[in-house]
Design goal:
By secondary structure, the chain is of the alpha/beta class. Helices cover 37% and strands 15% of the residues. It contains four helices and six strands.
Length: 227
Amino acid sequence: MKNKLRSSHQRGSVLFYILIAIVLFAALSYAVANMMRGNPEMLGSEKARVYADDIIAYAAAVRTAVQDLKISNGCAESDISFSNNFVSGYAHSPVVSNTCKVFELDGGGIGWYAALTDVNGALDWVFTGANKVPDVGIDANPDLVMILPEVKKNLCLAINAKLGIPDVSGDAPTDTDDISSTKFTGSYAASAQIGQTTHFSGKLAGCFKNTVPNPDTYNFYQVLVVR
C-alpha cells in the first residue's frame, strides 16, 4: 500500500514538473516570437547598445592608429592623412607618405567604417581639424577630431551611457555652437567649439545634441589629437 502511494506521489510530481516545463517553454517561445517580429522598443534598445559598442571601439581604434603614426612613424600632427578610396575631399596637401595615412596598410592599417542607415542615415564620418573641445589641450588650439553626424537619439544616449556622460532630462547634453565639418587635409583652423556645456569638459569622446545649423541633431565625436 505504501509503495502504491509513493508511486502515485512520484507520478504526480513528475507530471507537475512536466507542466511547469511546458509553461516555461511556452513563455520562452512567446518572448522569442515577439523578438523575431521585431518589438520596436526592445530591439531598438538592443541595437543601440550594439551600435554604440561598435562606434566607440572603431573611434578608439582610429585614435590609437593616429597616435601610432605620430610615435612610431614620426608623422607630424599636420601630416596625418585621411585620404581613402571611399570618400573624396581628403587628399593631403602637400602629399605625404603612405606611412602617415590612417587608411593605408603601411600607415594606420585602419579599414573604412561605413555607417549604416539605422545609425545615421548612412552619412559618412568626418575627419576635421576645425573644432575645439573645451579643457582638452589648449582651448585656443583646434583639435584633430572625427565626427559621426546625425546619429539616432537613442544611439546617442547609449553611447553617452557607456562613456559615463549623464543625460539631461532624458536627452543628450546640448551644444549651442555650430560644428565644422571641414575635412582635414593638413591645416588646422579653429572655427567651432564642440560641447558648449560642462558635460563634455575634458572629454575625449561623447555624443551631443546640436541646435546649429541643424536643430535637434545628434553627433558623436572622438578627439584623435589633443593640441
